[in-house]
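Following up on my earlier thread - several people asked me to post the actual chain instead of describing it. Fair enough. Here it is, all 103 residues.
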Amino acid sequence: MIKGELVETVKQRIRVTTREADEEVEALIDAAIGQLKIAGVSEALEDSTYIQAIVLYCKGNYGYDENTERFHRAFESLRDAMALSGDYEHEKSEADLGGNKEE
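Reply from S.P.:
Thanks for posting it. Predicted structure:
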């Protein structure tokens, strides 16, 4: 799935139809991917579980909804399960490990 398709998918799932929301939704998607990466989950834009984690993050952070906390907890639970499963392991680079190639 390419980024534009992902933005449209997320907008549909959070029930947003206006193009004016694209920039904010894209920023939330980037933040979700960043949060998943920090947890050790590698990017898998073709994986439905990975997409669901992004959607939960966006639902928890877009607009003002009484279910915000529930979506935050759901994202955190799914993120942690993905990180622990080993199926989404993020390959650590020298930079991630604090190494310096020029030493």
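Residues 3-85 form one domain. That should answer part of your original question.
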